[in-house]
Amino acid sequence: MNDEMDKSIFERSYCPITCSLDLLGDKWTLLIIRDLLLGKKRYQEFLESPERIATNILSDRLKKIETAGLAIQQAYQQKPIRYEYVLTKKGKDLKPVLQALVQWGKTYYPGTKVFEAIDR
């Protein structure tokens, strides 16, 4: 790889943890991925999560998640057109990462609660 190509792929370094954190390390992205894994798909459903994400941040993170190839947007209604989000394989592959965080959190933060999946 040449230096020009390196800069477009690696924001800070070649470390896989750094590269992952560049995408997932903000306050909201993994929570949206959590919600997608639990079955939420629509914008309003994400807004109903207990963390109360602001609409502008939600919109920004959904675009970021889509651009990164973690989810795709698909129309579920035509007039007016409305979209829902569906995880790609890349996004679904984050499930064990979130499961590990759940286990760690349950160990070190007693009394925390794991959210249930949405029945559709």
Describe this structure in words.
This protein is mainly α and 120 residues long. The chain has a domain at 34-114: Winged helix-like DNA-binding domain superfamily/Winged helix DNA-binding domain (Arc Repressor Mutant, subunit A, Orthogonal Bundle). It has 7 helices and 2 strands; from the N terminus they run αααααββαα. It has a two-stranded antiparallel ribbon. β1 and β2 form a beta hairpin. It is globular, with a radius of gyration of 16 Å. The termini are far apart. The model is unreliable at 1-6 (pLDDT under 50).
What low-confidence regions span 5 or more consecutive residues with pLDDT below 50?
1-6
| Architecture (CATH level 2) name of the domain at 34-114 | Orthogonal Bundle
Summed over residues and divided by their number, the pLDDT gives a mean of: 91
Q: H/E order of the elements?
A: HHHHHEEHH
Give the number of helices: 7
Top CATH class of the domain at 34-114: Mainly Alpha
CATH superfamily of the domain at 34-114: Winged helix-like DNA-binding domain superfamily/Winged helix DNA-binding domain
Q: What overall form do the CA principal axes indicate?
A: globular
| Quaternary assembly | single chain
Task: Give the strand order, joined by hyphens, for the main sheet.
Answer: 1-2
Structural class label: mainly alpha
Rounded to the nearest angstrom, the radius of gyration is 16 Å
The helical percent reads 40-55%
Q: What fold name goes in the CATH topology slot of the domain at 34-114? A: Arc Repressor Mutant, subunit A
Largest sheet: 2 strands, antiparallel
Strand content: 5-15%
